[in-house]
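Run log, item B.
One chain of 85 residues. Sequence copied directly from the ordering sheet:
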Amino acid sequence: MYPIERVRLYPKDRLVWKAFEILGDLETKVGEQLQRLDAATILSLTAYPFLIDTLLRSLCCTEEQGACAEMALALWKVADLPAVY
């Protein structure tokens, strides 16, 4: 599943058993759910270790090694993943 699909399912899973009389009410509730997403929740929904690893490896090919290592450690810490660099 792509990361954006996980974000799309987040409000859907919270509203699955709710009944709405008009489509506008459902649209409003979905919008409210999406607006409540904070950075930590979005990160938890979209942070796949293999994607982060691939991005970091591609950045390390173009950036100074020291700056790349700092960036990698910061990203892994935010994503609450074990540091492997």
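Observations after the first pass:
- The chain has a mean pLDDT of 75.
- Helices lie at 3-15, 23-35, 39-46, 49-60, 65-78.
Flagged for discussion on Thursday.
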